[in-house]
Each structure stands twice: as C-alpha cells, then as structure tokens.
Design brief:
By secondary structure, this protein is of the alpha/beta class. About 30% of the residues lie in helices and about 30% in strands. The strands form three sheets. Strands 1-4-5-3-2-6-7-8 form an eight-stranded mixed beta sheet. A six-stranded mixed beta sheet has the order 10-9-13-14-15-16, covered by helices on one side. A two-stranded antiparallel sheet has the order 11-12. A hairpin with a 2-residue loop joins strand 14 and strand 15. The longest helix is centred in the last third of the chain and has 14 residues.
Length: about 300
Amino acid sequence: MIVDLPGTTTSRVSKKLQELRESGGVVTLGRVLSLVVETDLDHLEAAVEAANGASKLHPCRIIVLAKADQGGESRLDAEIRVGGDAGASEVVVLRAFGEVLSNQESLVTGLLLPDAPVVAWWPSECSGNPGQSAIGKISSRRITDAAMQPRSAEFLAELASNYSPGDSDMAWARITLWRSQLTSLFEARQFSDLKSITVFANPDSPSAMLLARWLQLSLNIPSEIVSEIDGSGITGISGVKLETGDGALEIMRKGQIATISQPGFPSASVLLPQRSDLDCLVEDMRFLGEDLVYARVLESFK
C-alpha cells in the first residue's frame, strides 16, 4: 500500500504514520534501527529497492530524502509505503523541492524511531565529509559510495581527511569476498619471499584502489593496478597476482567464477560474484561500530 501526501509537512507525515499504526497497517515492533537514505530523484527507486531487501535481515524504518532541483517552488511531497510495497520495513519517501532542503535534519528527525540507532546511506553523489553533513551528524553509521562520485580517487582522499568512526563506503564492502578468499589462502600456507602484488582491474575503480592498498599494507610489499589482460581493457576487478619465491599465486575471475592457481597445488575454482548494492548494504548495517581495518586502509589515501 502506498499513501500519497502531496504538499505536506514532517508533522503531518508523522501523524499519518501513527494513524496507519493504530489501524494495523504499520507495525514498529521488532524495528531495530532507522535507515536514512539521502539521494536524488534519479536514484530513488533503486535505493528503495536495495533498502527494502536489506530490511528483511535488518528490520528498520526507511526514510528516503530525495533532493529535487533547488529552484522553483518550495514544497515537500511525501509517500508512505507499507505492506508489499515496503519489504519487511516501512518506507517514508520525502521529495523535497526548493528551500525545504535548507534544513534537512528537521525533515527526518521527527520520523526516526525513538531510542534506535540511525544509519545514513548516500547511494549517489554526496559530500566527502559525511560526518559533518546534516544527516551524518545524527547517524552512528554513515555509508557512502565512492563509485558514484565523479572523481573516485579524490573522493577517497577527501574521505580519509575527514574520517570519523562509523564511516564506511560501499567500495570497501564490494571487496569483502576478495579479501576473505585471499586471507584464507594465506592462513592455509606460508609463502616465502613475497615480491610484488598486481591487481587486474579498472584503474578508476575505488574498490580496486582499496584492494591494492589493503594488500600492500597487509603484506608490506608494493602493489600496482594493471588495466589490461591480453590487450583487453578490464571492467571492475578481474584478478590478483602475487609473485613469491615459490612462484605466482593467482586468483583470476571470469564471470562469477574465479580460478585459483598456486605453486605446488592443482588449480581450483571458487564462486566469486560481483556484489550488489543490496549485499553491501546488508553487510554495512550488520555492524554499527568502527571498522578499524577500513580506517587504516583509508588513512593511507591522505
């Protein structure tokens, strides 16, 4: 069910939520947090879809602040989505026009669940200082997406300069499977005389930058990003190669399957799919504390 509230205010939206709750259409029992999504109209529905999916594992109230053009009439249009239109959550979509956007915090604070953590997510272009933004100041977890910024490398450097505990980025969550696979290989055996690290990836990918830097810091040897394999350009991350005194350790991905080659062992195949926004959002909402490894890697971009 979708309830439209054109030309409204936050207090009217809150009152309507209360009416729906009393009539049995909205149930707050079991909601563990408030997820505030700040985006633009172009990315609105994709963000709601991912947030709805994440709510099945992390029951929450989803508040989406969709920023419209600053010019023109000052207006707030809202809609409340419940039932089949809201996954395991309740969704409040706020479309803000003109001067209404000048006080973003006031637009959402009256809709937050009481005594519950607040997670903020920016699935589109955003500030490189999320902790000091209007929404970020009221959030214990702040999730950005470097891949959606015009200049990803500069954005990572800005995030590093402005880092505060609770910051995270979806580019980091996208390499969780890579990091887990590489860690398990190194825990299973000792590699002598590590010489170099090569990440085969699009050099503009912030996930590739973070993966290469994580490997460099973890193994204390230089890393580089190579943008071609056999003369063909790469989209995303295609593989990792580590030169050791025993030979080369390689994990090369094609489609969703990666082939692992290592000295003294037969080749093996593992499932290594590209992670969706839903996968990354679920991971980032699972732990609301500080990610110390991410903080250490990000700091190296200063």
